[in-house]
Design brief:
Blueprint: H1 2-5, E1 9-11, H2 19-28, E2 31-40, H3 51-61, E3 65-71, H4 84-92, H5 97-100, E4 102-107, E5 114-123, E6 131-140, H6 149-160, E7 169-171
Parallel strand pairs: 1-7, 2-4
Antiparallel strand pairs: 2-5, 3-4, 5-6
Length: 172
């Protein structure tokens, strides 16, 4: 929509580590797979719809629970406060997009004071063997908060870096 309208879309990376690298691989046509796993304390999720009872069950069980694993698109409306980094991944990788990016949401009571974001990237260079990169970010967070404390700084610094109007999508 931004390209059709002659506008620039700025996407702050937030807690997504490696956003620019993902965008470069996607642009080069080498990005094959992208999975973002977000692990938080069960009390940090603000789930809606059919996901809400799963979060409640995870709270009651007190055990690590995979709440969702699959395409990103159906997850976004269920936990809009919790999947911003995943949404940034889909925007960084438009060839995979909302249906090609794999999202995994995990409730884990053993991490009450941090959010763990794991990004798994698979790229295949022209005629080459697969390149895989996995990064793990442990973001300090207050118990029950949906956003980690380091995300605010990352978001703000990426907004400050946004300048110019060279293209239809600028990952900051």
């Amino acid at each position: 929509a931004a390209a059709r309208g002659g506008h620039t879309l700025y996407v702050p990376r937030g807690a997504l580590w490696g956003c620019e690298d993902i965008a470069r691989m996607d642009s080069a046509g080498t990005l094959q797979a992208l999975k973002v796993t977000m692990t938080k304390s069960p009390g940090s999720f603000r789930a809606q719809g059919w996901l809400s009872p799963r979060v409640a069950a995870a709270v009651a069980s007190g055990t690590r629970t995979v709440l969702y694993q699959g395409p990103l698109r159906p997850l976004c409306p269920l936990v809009p406060n919790n999947v911003n980094s995943m949404a940034a991944a889909a925007l960084a990788a438009p060839q995979l997009g909302w249906d090609g990016v794999t999202a995994c949401l995990v409730a884990d009571p053993s991490v009450p004071d941090c959010h763990i974001i794991e990004v798994e990237v698979t790229a295949v260079p022209e005629g080459g063997r697969a390149l895989t990169v996995t990064s793990t970010r442990r973001n300090p967070a207050q118990p029950g908060h949906v956003t980690g404390s380091a995300t605010r700084h990352s978001f703000w610094s990426s907004v400050q870096a946004c300048t110019g109007h060279g293209g239809c999508l600028k990952l900051c």
